[in-house]
Design a protein that fits this description.
EC 1.2.1.3; 5-stranded parallel sheet; Aldehyde_DH_dom; aldehyde dehydrogenase (NAD(+)); single chain; 15 helices; Aldehyde Dehydrogenase, Chain A, domain 2; 512 residues
């Protein structure tokens, strides 16, 4: 039975529990989780507030060494942590290894930032006066994450937040509690002090109430949230009441534009990976392929062939994708499949919906009846009037539509109102930069899939995909620090800016 960790100690097991099961074998329980209440989350924020003072005073290069130790422990436990990810959220083992590597890469980047939390000395307009700027930690950071990337995404928040001198209260997805527990243990054994990182397992309702209580009590200085656009909007409203700007990483409806001069087999390969990798359960998963009319039919044919040939099934093996994460996501995907209408044509598999003995898929790896496995589906003929075109689907489905001119393709790509990731396949540089200028996405890929992030590149979206905050790289430091300016006048007299400034008179009437 897992329970929340506050101040370095497990809190007592409460009456409300959650069973985290293996989505590829739903009868197998991975972890029993004791769910905390709103008061527990607010209490964790109070403990974090008390611990943050001492952590802030640890020199940043020393905090960087703690981050380095986290990275070394993650690498030493890479295979074990990846197995937990595969078992609890159904991510194929090869992908799970890549996710764990992302944690190590994040640590590798930020260990050096402990020596580069630079301020600046700035020249003054007054003599005998010096100006300085400093980065200070914001204080207590509350982080709420989804479970589709149960260790990589939390590291994007927690590693830089700790490096900058903040204390953290983390609410992971309850359906990824075993992953969260393993993640916490690595941080604790790397030397993160008790109370500086706290883990609270709670459901959505209690989490929101706990955040509200903590914000009202002045215990939280920054909220980071990864999840749905709808919940992110509510958190944004809550934080706005306290004049705070949260870091929101929300959903996506990520377009891929395939131009008439594209390398078509490469585009199909990119669509297959970004649409069906992680069973389409990434915020950066491909939503709609927008294909030039001259290539449309051939693109659909090749993608259909590739999807039918791709191995699907037991995530411990070499498969393109495994199960959906849990029953809640399966139910949501069933609703999405209901959006397929009479004007659409489907491709990609021998059926649609859940893979069962009665609805089989050729070459399936494992026992389809044991888990939450779904057919990959390609839906041709979607358009702006379709819910399938407008809404995030979060499952193994790709929409396809045709276009004639690039301006039309860009308009279609922007139409759903999200702005996370977008991709263009073309051999024409002019098309690349025209697309980049006009696409609303925070991240653009050229001849690459909509999925994929690196630890030193800013990650984040616009519109319905976020509020402009960026994670990863040096850009995330602005989420977890505040700028402080200081002026030091050593002239021995009061000098008034903009008033007591030396003026040198030019002769502006001079002409050659």
């Amino acid at each position: 039975m897992l329970s929340s960790v506050i101040g370095g100690a497990r809190i007592p097991v409460g009456p409300r529990t959650y069973r985290s099961t293996d989505p590829s074998r739903t009868a197998e329980v991975v972890a029993e989780v004791s769910l905390a209440g709103a008061a527990d989350l607010a209490g964790a924020c109070r403990v974090a507030r008390e611990a943050q003072d001492a952590w802030r005073d640890v020199p940043p290069p020393v905090r960087g060494q703690v981050v380095a130790a986290i990275g070394r422990l993650v690498e030493a436990n890479k295979a074990a942590l990846a197995r937990v990810v595969t078992r609890e959220v159904g991510k194929p083992y090869a992908e799970a290894l890549g996710e764990v590597q992302e944690v190590a890469d994040t640590c590798a980047f930020f260990l050096g930032e402990g020596r580069r939390l630079y301020g600046q000395t700035v020249p003054s307009e007054m003599p005998d006066k010096q100006l300085f700027t400093f980065r200070d930690p914001v204080g207590v950071v509350a982080v709420v994450t989804a479970g589709n990337f149960p260790v990589a995404v939390p590291s994007w928040y927690i590693v830089p937040a700790l490096l900058c001198g903040n204390a953290v209260v983390w609410k992971p997805a309850e359906y990824a509690a075993a992953c969260a527990d393993a993640f916490y243990e690595l941080f604790a054994h790397a030397g993160v002090p008790d109370g500086v990182l706290n883990v609270v397992y709670a459901d959505g309702t209690e989490t929101f109430r706990g955040l509200e209580q903590a914000l009202d009590a002045g215990l939280v200085d920054k909220v980071g949230f990864t999840g749905s656009t709808e919940v992110g909007s509510r958190i944004g409203e809550l934080c706005g009441r306290h004049l705070q700007t949260p870091c929101l990483e929300l959903g996506g409806k990520n377009p891929m534009v395939v131009t008439e001069d594209a390398d078509l087999p490469l585009a199909v390969e990119g669509a297959l990976f970004s649409g069906f990798g992680t069973a389409g359960q990434r915020c950066t998963s491909l939503g709609t392929a927008i294909v030039h009319e001259s290539l449309h039919a051939e693109f659909v044919r090749l993608l259909d062939e590739a999807a039918r040939a791709a191995p699907v099934g037991d995530p411990s093996g070499d498969v393109l994708f495994g199960p959906l994460i849990n029953e809640r996501f399966a139910d949501g995907f069933e609703k999405v499949l209901g959006w397929i209408g009479p004007g659409h044509t489907t491709h990609g598999s021998s059926g649609t919906g859940r893979i069962t003995a009665a609805n089989p898929r050729a070459g399936f790896a494992g026992d389809p009846e044991a888990g939450l496995f779904y057919h990959p589906v390609i839906v041709d003929g979607v358009g702006p009037g379709d819910e399938l075109f407008r809404a995030e689907t979060f499952g193994p489905v790709i929409g396809v539509t045709a276009y004639r001119a690039l301006d039309e393709a860009i308009a279609l790509a922007n139409a759903p109102g999200y702005g996370l990731s977008a991709s263009i396949y073309t051999t024409d540089p002019a098309k690349v930069f025209r697309f980049r200028r006009r696409i609303s996405a925070g991240m653009v890929s050229v001849n690459n899939s909509t999925s994929g992030a690196e630890a030193h590149l800013p990650f984040g979206g616009n519109g319905r995909s976020g509020n402009g905050g960026r994670q990863s790289g040096m850009w995330v430091l602005d989420q977890f620090t505040r700028w402080q300016s200081m002026n030091w006048d050593h002239s021995g007299r009061l000098q008034k800016a903009q008033m007591d400034v030396l003026e040198i008179e030019p002769d502006l009437g001079f002409r050659l």
